[in-house]
Amino acid sequence: MERDNRPCPLCSFPIPKVNEDGEEVVRVRKFPKTTNPYPSYMRRVLNRIFIFITLLVFVAVSLMAYIDYELNEMFTWSRYSNLSVLAGWGFIFFTFGYVKNYYKVLIGIGLDMLILLFGLDLFNGSLDWFIPLAFPIVTGTTVVAILYWSVVRALSVRGFNVIGFFFIAAVILIMWINFFIQNYQNKTDPLNWLIVTVLQLLPVLLIMLYVKYGMPERIKQKIARKFHL
User: Fold this and answer.
1) 131-190: pLDDT as tens digits
2) What mean pLDDT comes out for the span 3-9?
3) Is the dihedral of CA 96, 100, 102, 107 positive or negative?
4) Gyration radius (Cα) of the chain, Å
5) DSSP output for the chain
6) Residue 83, pLDDT above cutoff 60
7) 36, 143, 208, 211: which sits with the fewest CB atoms below 10 Å from its CB?
8) Residues 61-77: pLDDT tens digits?
9) 57: Cα within 13 Å, side-chain hemisphere
10) pTM (two decimals)
């Protein structure tokens, strides 16, 4: 009991005042600080896996470059394979938790994909599809992912809202990709674009409205427990 807690805050028992002057107060050792060894254990496992993958990537890139140069006396097909392998290594680096900020992870993955697609298009001798197609699609995907993560973090009540905003982000991304594909094929039609947009948004809105207002509460709770929402 604390010295100032009189009477007892739980049962209101009148605690007598004990004069501790001149008496040796027993010092009770506190409990040890609780620690969870699982994160540090997983970090060591991921570090070992990443080191092994890094060594494997180094051997594969060196071997493919050597074989290509020996056969063709120049780098031909190995440029494509080595760039793809290095881009895959960069993706693993960002997904293995070495970058703690989620925004930096999303931006890093987006830049990794842009470098990969830029190199693949450049190796063909000209930039045919990177500027009009790959760049806006990858950039739009990164921006939508960042906005979705920002909205989820700002929600005071998540649950089904996370799923709802995910479908909205997916529809926006699909419309964005569809627009640039049609524009690349010179098939952009404003009226057709409006119809496609409405047809994509309408089912998602109907599903979300049913989940919000039409689904019984017991089913909502069951789904929430099932998916840990």
Assistant:
1) 999 999 999 999 999 999 998 888 776 666 787 788 888 888 888 888 888 888 887 676
2) 68
3) negative
4) 29
5) --TT--S-TTT---PPP---TTSPPPPPPPPPPP--HHHHHHHHHHHHHHHHHHHHHHHHHHHHHHHHHHHHSS-STHHHHHHHHHHHHHHHHHHTTSS--HHHHHHHHHHHHHHHHHHHHHTTTS-SSIIIIIHHHHHHHHHHHHHHHHHHHH-SS-THHHHHHHHHHHHHHHHHHHHHHHHHTT---HHHHHHHHHHHHHHHHHHHHIIIIIS-HHHHHHHHHHTT-
6) yes
7) 36
8) 999 999 999 999 899 99
9) 18
10) 0.70
- How many other CB atoms sit within 10 Å of the CB of residue 97? 14
Looking at residue 203, its pLDDT comes to 78
Instruction: Annotate 102-116 with b (16+ C-beta within 10 A) or e (fewer).
Output: eeebbbbbbebbbeb
Phi-psi region of 99 (alpha: psi -120 to 50; beta: other; left: phi over 0): beta
